[in-house]
Amino acid sequence: MMNVKISGAGEEICEKDYSILFFDSPFAQTTDKVNNQEELSKQKIYSARLSRHRIAAPILRMRVRYEQLPNSKGNQNGSSLKAAVAALLLFVIVSTSFVLYQDAQNMRNAPRSTPIIVAWTKFFSANLKDSLLPSLRNCNYRCDFVDRKELKILNKSAAAYILHGRDMRLTDLPKQSADHLNVLFLLESPFHTGSEMYRVPRDYFNATMTYRLDSNYFYPYGHFQPRTPNDTVGIITNEEIVAAVRRKKKGSLIFVSNCHTPSKREKTIRQLGKLTEITVRGRCENELSVDNKTKSISCKTDCSDDALIATHRFYISFENSNCNDYITEKYFNRISELLVPVVMKRRIYEAAGLPKHSFIAVDDFNSLEDLGIYLNFLRKNDTEYLRYFEWTKHFRKPNTYVSNALCKLCEDIYKGKKLRVNNIRDYYEKNQCF
User: Fold this and answer.
1) 386 and 246, same structural domain?
2) Does the pTM exceed 0.70?
3) Which residues contact 249 (CB under 8 A, 6 or more apart)?
4) How distant, in Å, are the alpha carbons of 25, 151, 233, 272 from that of 47?
5) Which of 3, 79, 88, 137 could form a disulfide with 72 if both were Cys (CB 3.0 to 4.6 A apart)?
6) Predicted confidence (pLDDT) at residue 135 exceeds the cutoff of 80
């Protein structure tokens, strides 16, 4: 029970200096007192919390000339003021105690040594570790991210395993265990998850790391960052936009190599190609050529030809699948190159929080004929076309493949968070595509 005395002008309001709760506690230890590797993981928690405790401590040491407050006898205002001071002190003590309790709980759950996260599979032909490592940079929590060979050399237990859904094999899976997390990493739509997803035990995974907004660890193809007055990187100026638009005399452009898709985009492209000019590059150019309207050009060199990008106004950003949150580099890369994306479903893009007037959606129009007329109109009207670059006043160029997913996983390991996906197939496929 707190013992409070009425203080003189130079005395504390409390007999006990409650700052000892903070500065004589283990939270106040500094890194130069840590002499072994096992304490470094706890040190992360100590140092992260210390700043909050230092804010609260001076409040508890407030000096109040209590006798100078209005006398409570016959003075209702004086009584109210004293009650307010007492209530403030009580609030600070209770809230601080709660913070200390939470931190103590986190300490108990904190690993005794630096946690190890393992990239168990490849990422198609790429190294999964190299692909994900940037999402651990500038992280407030320390985890070692290794591949399988490095784990074998370390000869230690892992806290989490990350498996790319398209590269995992049923005969080569880490065991299920309460001592580690199995995390599914997948950036493909439900139509392209790979056969192993249908064979792995439904409850095998503890967590997901995908493009979906409801993933445990969100890993989008790209994202926008708000622009600030001091930004110098990733800024597109109005002068750049106007100069680029002057060079854009052609209609729509598309690079496409998958000719038969669940979204039936090839059918829409053929129909739209009868109504407006579309330049097709890639393996599907012959299949998608229609009459003389669709200008198919053989892909002999670089399919992402800068000259073509510079001279076209629109990019046909139709995905191979129309699924919730599934927005790939087809949108993010091309909008950075000052092409206006034409997409299939507006609700998918707005649900992801993308700038509303940064793209044109097929389902905004009553028919493809109306869409074709509108694209032809914008091709000749610079003023209206420029409205699709208003987003550059509020956002920087979108970043692609940038995420803090691995850092969030590392944080959850420190907090001892228990995760479980009861049915991975239902999670990934049920009611996701249309």
Assistant:
1) yes
2) yes
3) 311
4) 12, 29, 31, 59
5) 79
6) yes
